[in-house]
Design goal:
Strand order of the largest sheet of chain A: 6-7-8-3-9-10-12-11
Number of domains of chain B: 1
Order of helices and strands of chain B: HHHHHHHHHH
Number of helices of chain A: 24
Number of helices of chain B: 10
Largest sheet of chain B: none
Distance between the termini of chain A: 44 Å
Radius of gyration of chain A: 26 Å
Oligomer: heterodimer
Radius of gyration of chain B: 23 Å
CATH topology of chain B: MetI-like fold
Helix content of chain A: 25-40%
Number of strands of chain B: 0
Distance between the termini of chain B: 26 Å
Largest interface: A-B, 39 and 30 residues
Number of strands of chain A: 24
Number of domains of chain A: 4
Strand content of chain B: under 5%
CATH class of the largest domain in chain A: Alpha Beta
Structural class of chain B: mainly alpha
CATH class of chain B: Mainly Alpha
């Protein structure tokens, strides 16, 4: 076997020039990828994962430069080779798959031509190239490749587009494939398919892969070896199974503990967090990069740079205390929050929200599109309702309908605490508006970047609780401090806050009007896992103290499972399963829920059979007849109910007390199929 | 991030940006030129060497010399002093005209971009129709209709002419902004539309507006000069640059180039300096 690694980074240091100053983003990074090996780089945002990938392609942004070290591709140093040689390398030996397939494809050129271009660059005639493009699409398992060749990028779904990008990357038969968060923007079901595909292709082609992801589960399932990056330094490296079973750097230990996994629930378990925040870009360190946030750090850690220590064979960690890493003290933050005086005397579990027959029709190019179809749900005081489903299932639209940002169709009724709510926001009174608030997905967009933190929260208190300005500001400061936004940050603008702090400000604002119900629309999906854990803990604490109810929208089933008391699974604007968290997650499952659950990459390393959903989500403008899931249903075939599934839409039936399902196949049969 | 480091980070970003700005040669040159003209506009009479109307009959059309640095015009007036003193007129008029255009344009653009629908449709078509007519023709028609020309009328004309451009730019920025969730958040605390427009959205499109303002200011300098040149601007005989060029350009054919060249250079230098500054600001503040 060839012993020269396909890619080797040796003591690589990279700096970006930002506002006239060089800031180091990679610190002495060394790793090697053998031919045919998949190497995963994992770490939180800003740790230098993508920089490492771009450096390997010699594709750093204009303000980036390699200040030290070497990058060896098949033994040859490519740090100083000229642009022509770099172009040749990219044309024939190294390919890259980017995070966002929608922007990686040229929107004005047909797919076929884009793929054929790669072949033509390598000297194939244009007629042959088109034929080879079709073969390339076949290779990535795209159905009907001849038709896809004639399409434009915007006519493809996210999963299809990513397959096309992968097909293009593989067209030159590269020896190294760099994949930068290739599935991050995709739904879990699509992600699972794309990962399956990558795994198969790797087996067939023997291409070495540098796989970059913030998702530990994905890395665990895809890679032979893993490197953990923190603040631009490689802090731990080893075979995947070794590293996950015996994490030996406190950062890796902390990272793994933050993730809500395997049946953890808010009622019994509090999530760990990593205290503090990652260092600013380009900060200089005397000692260990992680010392400031590490509970095990001592003076030595702060003053001396630790070297890589061998844990077991190839498993190494850059830590003086790697032997003690697994005993890292648990870190849990408690809030100091004064409960709101709301005057609600109801107790936990009493009915609070009742949604009945909610529908929404959008008009698109003159066609009526029913995006929400007859949704009825209930939620009790102090409980959390988790809304899950693939993108386009209508989760966010339901939130907008509830809040009155978009009016529902006639017949839909929303009652909160026994009181019917007006359809639109401007017809609701202040008390009703304050009673139901939202925490948006992206705090960068949800907080006005021109206003100070105090103003953002204070104005909400002033409007919703009719406080005087002075009282409103006092209350805002109280709220913010309670949510651990320190007093000296109250006068700054959101741009100066980290993602987690921004989301705390957004939560403070949502709680300004003493709400009974807060809709959380993917509140942690833009955050790193350690920050996510802290935000989830905060929400749970608030719920306990204020008896606030949540509607929690997320595509992350682990998070939903952790925080929810009830779950509603949505598909194509319909509730397909609804019940208590325990019932929904313990099965028997609705076939759609089953497929969703099985597609989540498992962080525990246990293998389990994936129940695939074939094809992509149909357009709500032209839903399938019968059960809307039937063309993709993993349990239809062989169930004995095929005809019924294809002709008649099932009702949402109570299959056991408190557990509703929209499926023709009876519980007993599902149980038997799923055992 | 602790509070202290966040505050420091905020100050560092600003001070680093200012440091980059101070090193930006284009910005320095632009700012120096504009400062010079601003000082001339404020202290014109002190910097000038003669009164703008002082006529030296010994020196009619005399070439630049130690006594008259930029030479004299056909009335024996010092071109240098007239250029210096004339800066006030053009800078003030251009600035006020641009301000008027920016105010009207921003208001209409905000309303159109936020309210969308029919209002947006109708308003934008009207503004497009206005901007389809050549600027000079509108100006001349307006002057002809009013029957006289003055600085106020010049300001109004240029302000109105700039309105559609500013409105279009602001509308495009507002269309993007109004989709952002902070607008929904404002609705969810029962804010009125006017509050959302002027207190929430406007501050966020301000950078766009400021850039548009500087670009328009550059055009306004030309527009004021052009209108004066055509006699549709200020009162005849005023030391304004456009009028000076208009009064003297025919002398070029008799080889008396200085009364035309120096005001022309002044016009060009102001326009260029404003563009240099706006380019540098765009780059450094990553707009």
């Amino acid at each position: 076997m060839n012993t020269t690694p396909t890619l080797e980074l040796r003591n690589l240091e990279v700096a970006y020039t930002v506002r006239g100053i060089d800031r180091q983003v990679l610190r002495d990074v060394s790793f090697a990828i053998a031919p045919g090996e998949a190497y995963g780089l994992v770490g939180e945002s800003g740790c230098g994962k993508s920089t490492a990938a771009f450096a390997a392609m010699r594709y750093l942004p204009r303000n980036g430069k390699i200040t030290k070290g070497s990058i060896l591709f098949e033994g040859q140093d490519i740090v100083d080779i000229n642009e022509d040689a770099v172009a040749k390398l990219r044309r024939s030996a190294i390919s890259m798959v980017y995070q966002n397939p929608a922007t990686a494809l040229n929107p004005t050129i047909r797919i076929g031509k884009q793929i054929a271009e790669v072949f033509e660059l390598n000297g194939v005639s244009s007629s042959d190239a088109m034929m080879m493009a079709e073969q390339a699409l076949t290779r990535v398992q795209i159905a009907d490749p001849a038709r896809v060749l004639r399409r434009y990028a915007h006519q493809l779904s996210g999963g299809m587009a990513q397959r096309v990008v992968i097909a293009m990357a593989l067209a030159s038969n590269p020896r190294l494939l760099v994949m930068d968060e290739p599935t991050t923007g995709l739904d879990a079901t699509v992600e699972a398919e794309v990962l399956d595909l990558v795994r198969e292709l790797r087996r067939d082609t023997g291409t070495a892969v540098l796989f970059i992801s913030h998702n530990l589960g994905v890395i665990r399932n895809m890679c032979d070896r893993v490197g953990v990056l923190y603040a631009g330094a490689l802090v731990e490296q080893g075979a995947t199974s070794d590293l996950f079973s015996n994490p030996s750097h406190p950062y890796t230990v902390g990272l793994l503990r933050c993730i809500p996994r395997g049946g953890l629930h808010k009622s019994t378990d509090r999530l760990d967090t990593i205290p503090g925040t990652p260092p600013a870009l380009g900060l200089k360190f005397d000692g260990c990069v992680f010392a400031a946030r590490c509970a095990l750090a001592d003076d030595k850690c702060r003053t001396q740079l630790p070297q890589m220590v061998t844990i077991n064979g190839a498993h190494v960690a850059r830590c003086f205390h790697s032997d003690k890493a697994s005993s890292l003290p648990r870190s849990v933050e408690q809030i100091e929050y004064a409960p709101q005086v709301t005057g609600h005397s109801t107790k936990v579990g009493d009915a609070l929200l009742n949604i009945s027959h909610l529908s929404k029709v959008f008009t698109q190019d003159g066609h009526k599109v029913r995006v929400i179809n007859d949704v009825s749900l209930t939620l009790g005081v102090g409980e959390t309702l988790g809304l899950v489903g693939e993108s386009g299932s209508g989760k966010t639209t339901i939130a907008k309908l509830l809040l009155g940002l978009t009016p529902p169709e006639e017949g839909g009724v929303v009652t909160l605490d026994g009181k019917g709510l007006a359809k639109t926001l401007n017809r609701r009174d202040v008390a009703d508006v304050g009673a139901m608030q939202i925490v948006f997905q992206n705090p960068d967009q949800a907080l006005n970047r021109r206003h100070s933190v105090t103003r953002i929260v204070g104005r909400a208190v002033e409007r919703l609780r009719k406080f005087s300005l002075a009282d409103a500001i006092a209350r805002a400061h109280e709220l913010l401090s309670g949510m651990r936004v320190e007093a000296s940050l109250h006068s700054v603008r959101p741009v100066q806050l980290s993602g987690g702090l921004k989301q705390r400000v957004a939560i403070s604002r949502a709680f300004a009007g003493a709400p009974q119900l807060v809709v959380c629309d993917e509140p942690t999906s833009a955050l790193d896992v350690s920050v996510q854990a802290a935000i989830l803990n905060l929400l749970v604490d608030l719920q306990k103290q204020d008896k606030t109810s949540f509607i929690f929208i997320s595509h992350d089933l682990g998070v939903v499972r952790y925080i929810s008391d009830r779950i509603a699974v949505l598909y194509l604007g319909r509730v397909v399963e609804f019940g208590t968290s325990q019932r929904v997650f313990s099965g028997p499952f609705h076939p759609y829920t089953e497929a969703l659950l099985s597609s989540v990459p498992n962080i525990d390393g246990s293998t389990r059979k994936r129940i695939p959903l074939t094809g992509s989500v149909p357009s709500p403008s032209n839903p399938p007849s019968g059960c809307v899931l039937n063309p993709r249903c993993p349990r239809k075939a062989g169930s004995g109910y095929e005809t019924l599934c294809e002709t008649e839409e099932p009702n949402l039936n109570e299959v056991e007390p408190g557990h509703f399902m929209r499926c023709h196949i009876p519980m007993a049969k599902l149980k038997q199929l799923q055992s | 991030m602790t509070d202290e480091t966040a505050k420091q980070a905020q100050q560092t970003v600003l001070s680093e940006r200012l440091a980059v700005l101070r090193k930006n040669k284009a910005f320095i040159v632009g700012a120096a030129i504009l400062c010079f003209w601003a000082l001339s506009a404020i202290f014109g009479k002190l910097i000038a060497r003669y009164d703008q109307d002082f006529m030296d009959y010994e020196y009619i059309n005399s070439a630049p010399s130690g006594k008259y640095w930029f030479g004299t015009d056909s009335n024996g007036r010092d071109v240098y002093s007239r250029v210096i003193i004339g800066s006030r007129i053009i800078l003030v008029i251009s600035f006020l005209a641009t301000l008027l255009g920016a105010f009207l344009g921003a208001s209409l653009g905000l309303a159109a971009g936020y309210l969308k629908g029919k209002f947006d449709m109708v308003l934008m078509r009207i503004l497009e129709a206005i901007s389809a007519i050549p600027v000079i023709i509108i100006a001349l028609l307006a002057v002809a209709a009013i029957g006289r020309s003055s600085s106020i009328i010049t300001i109004l004309i240029i302000g109105f002419i700039f309105t559609p451009n500013v409105a279009r730019t602001v509308r495009a920025a507002v269309l993007g902004e109004s989709e952002l969730e902070y607008v929904a958040a404002a609705k969810l605390r029962t804010e009125k539309t006017a509050h959302i427009l002027f207190r929430e959205v406007l501050p966020n499109v301000l950078p766009t507006l400021i850039v548009e303002f500087t670009v328009r200011l550059g055009y306004a300098i030309f527009a004021v000069a052009t209108l004066s040149f055509l006699g549709a601007g200020l009162e005849a005989g005023s030391p304004d640059w456009g009028t000076q060029v208009a009064d003297t350009w025919s002398l070029i054919f008799t080889n008396v180039w200085w009364p035309t060249l120096f005001p022309s250079l002044a016009i060009a230098s102001v326009a260029v300096s404003i563009n240099l500054i706006s380019d540098a600001l765009l780059e450094v503040f990553e707009l």
